Amino acid sequence: DAGITQSPRHKVTETGTPVTLRCHQTENHRYMYWYRQDPGHGLRLIHYSYGVKDTDKGEVSDGYSVSRSKTEDFLLTLESATSSQTSVYFCRTGSQNTEAFFGQGTRLTVV
Amino acid sequence: GESVGLHLPTLSVQEGDNSIINCAYSNSASDYFIWYKQESGKGPQFIIDIRSNMDKRQGQRVTVLLNKTVKHLSLQIAATQPGDSAVYFCAERSGAQKLVFGQGTRLTINP
User: Fold this and answer.
1) Which of A47, A96, B6, B28 could form a disulfide with A66 if both were Cys (CB 3.0 to 4.6 A apart)?
2) Residues of A16-54 as b/e, b for ≥16 C-beta within 10 angstroms?
3) Quick check: A107 contacting B, CB < 8 Å?
């Protein structure tokens, strides 16, 4: 897992509630990413970070925000969860010219 | 575990046989490619990578071939084992740390 920990691993929440997922890395990688994985869509990029306090949107960023206050942590927040955000979320880290490693995923269910 | 794709291409091989999984990529300017393995309920696991200045790279029981002329990538797994059963997908790096992922192929190893 290359030192990547996602928490929580599973979460059930109600529509309209805020949810924060955490990705923690121990490899000091500069880049961190959040993806969602859904049947028929594969992995889709939500947001990514290229350094502390430096973030940018991915292809499916609506309804999500991120923060990176230190190198090792990248937080994904759903401000007001909707059923369409039920998914499996993966964090990835990377460095220029190295392999990209994923966390084990967080299964989020919005009811 | 969750499904990573409802209608993925599938490949079934006999245990001990070799398997070849193919991937077409989209960007002729992509400079780096990765193959991942994803088992049910787990995050994508790095298998092998290759840079665009190479056409072949070998690992333990796996070989990746890159044909830039036709934008084609393949993963060869030698002497398949039951533990090789998983979804395999490729990724291409098409710009500063941006990976684009394929949908994947489900490999089933028959005893």
Assistant:
1) A47
2) eeebebebbbeeebebbbbbbbbeeebbbbbbbbeeeee
3) yes
What does the pLDDT profile of chain B (111 residues) look like in tens digits? 333 345 688 999 999 999 999 999 988 989 999 999 999 989 999 999 999 999 999 999 999 999 999 999 999 999 999 999 999 999 998 776 678 888 899 999 999
Q: Which DSSP string corresponds to chain A?
A: -TTEEEE-SEEEE-TT--EEEEEEESS--SEEEEEEEETTTEEEEEEEEEETTEEEE-TT-TTEEEEEEETTEEEEEESS--GGG-EEEEEEEE-TTS--EE---EEEEE-
Name residue A75's beta-bridge partners: A22, A67
Residues of chain A with C-beta less than 8 angstroms from the C-beta of B36: 102
The residue type found at A72 is E
